[in-house]
Amino acid sequence: MAERADAFRRRLAGAIAAALLLGSVAAAHAQIVATRIWPARDYTRVTFESRQPLDYSLFPLKNPERLVLDLQGEESGAVLAELQDKVAAGDPYISSLRVAVNRPGVMRVVLDLKAEVRPQVFALQPIADYGHRLVLDLYPLVPPDPLAALLELGGQIGAAPPDKRLPGKPAVERLATVVIDAGHGGEDPGARGRRGTLEKDITLLIAQRLKALVDAEPGIRAVLTRDGDYYLSLQARVEKARAVKADLFVSVHADAFIRPHARGSSVFTLSQRPTSVAARWLAQQENDSDLIGGVNLDTRDPYLKQVLLDLSQTATSDHSQKLAGAVLAELGQINTLHKAQVERAGFAVLKAPDVPSILVETAFISNPQEELRLRDRAYQDKMARAMLAGIKRYFQLHPPRPQSPLALN
Ligand SMILES: [Zn+2]
């Protein structure tokens, strides 16, 4: 907070100096160019996008629970006022939102809350198509239990017709859990195709398709790391996989490269030493997206990242390699392979230490032909089916470990 206040004072001093220098104080109105609300299971994110970094103050009010965000240097509330209509009916935290002029040069945003929240505010630097952003995340006081989703799912599985079970078999068998991770999301769009297709949208569609296919198979179930358009840090994805005792972790992406003719599918496993320059470059791109939530994560748990990064991969790298080989072989049936072998790169998202993990670059979104195919529902289905076939082939050769994932708790 002290840092924040210092930064604010520095910026204020700078603004005053600039105003004196220019002989004008009219520089700062209508800064906000866009507003967004991303409701998600774990938290709701409110984003204010602006031409210049925004100065703000945030404080809670009780009875009823509210959060007040004052935005300085914002004279016109026109764009800001649009936010009032963007609160989703099912938002877990916000019941309504109001925008009003508080005093000259200060717009006030009041969030009426359904319950007390743990707010976090941070600024993001401009990236890709986005300008400066002020992000307000509303977390529940008690984090939701990641196992709750699995138990809900277990209820559905338990509801299967009893006559389908063989005599003498236990009612609930060990189900293998595949965690499917749709890359990017929310404020992190990932790569962008020439026609404007966003990687985050494609990865979600393919991940959702793959989940439906996996869930239709006996003995396997799928859990998505995200099931909507919202941001999740890489570590949050890994935590989810661990929390549900994932047997496999499959992260779905769509590749991009500077050269538009780069094409084909790739499958990566983790390595401290990337196999190629391209793999190193790609890992850098994917890992950079973590910066988007980096501030947030670092304030929440400064040790988590280091712990994850320090854990050894030796126990599962062999199995990751086998899974990657199986999936790559299936992808080779439906698409050109970018590289004939499994590649290795240092992706943070693959650093789930006890779960065989792969990252699939389905195709190049930066290649105009592949971008078109990625947008096609039938092709998304083909991709998902190829990944499913690879996953099944892996499980045939390496059945899931016998203990129940829930028994460990
Ligand atoms: Zn990606």
Question: Distance between termini?
Answer: 37 Å
Low-confidence stretches: 14-28, 149-172, 290-315, 403-409
| Tally of DSSP β-strands | 14
The total of helices stands at: 11
What fraction, in percent, of the residue positions are helical? 25-40%
User: Biggest sheet, in brief?
Assistant: 6 strands, mixed
Quaternary organisation: single chain
Structural class: alpha/beta
Mean pLDDT over the full residue set:
75
What is the overall silhouette? globular
Write the element-wise H/E pattern from the N-terminal end onward.
Answer: HEEEEHEEEEHEHEHEEHHHHEEHH
Bound molecules: zinc ion
Question: What Rg, in angstroms, do the CA atoms define?
Answer: 23 Å
Write out the strand line-up for the largest beta sheet, numbering strands in chain order.
10-9-11-14-12-13
Strand coverage percent: 15-25%
What can you see in these coordinates?
The protein is of the alpha/beta class and 409 residues long. The longest helix has 21 residues, at 2-22. The relative contact order is 0.12. The strands form three sheets. It has a six-stranded mixed beta sheet, with helices on both faces. A four-stranded antiparallel beta sheet has the order 1-2-8-7, covered by helices on one side. Strands 3-4-6-5 form a four-stranded antiparallel beta sheet, with no helix packed on it. The radius of gyration is 23 Å and the shape is globular. The chain has helices at residues 2-22, 78-81, 146-158, 199-215, 234-243, 277-288, 291-300, 302-310, 314-334, 368-375, 377-397, and strands spanning 32-39, 44-50, 55-61, 66-72, 94-103, 106-113, 117-124, 132-140, 176-182, 220-224, 248-255, 266-270, 343-345, 357-364. The chain binds zinc ion. Zinc ion binds at residues 183-184, 190, 199, 253, 286.
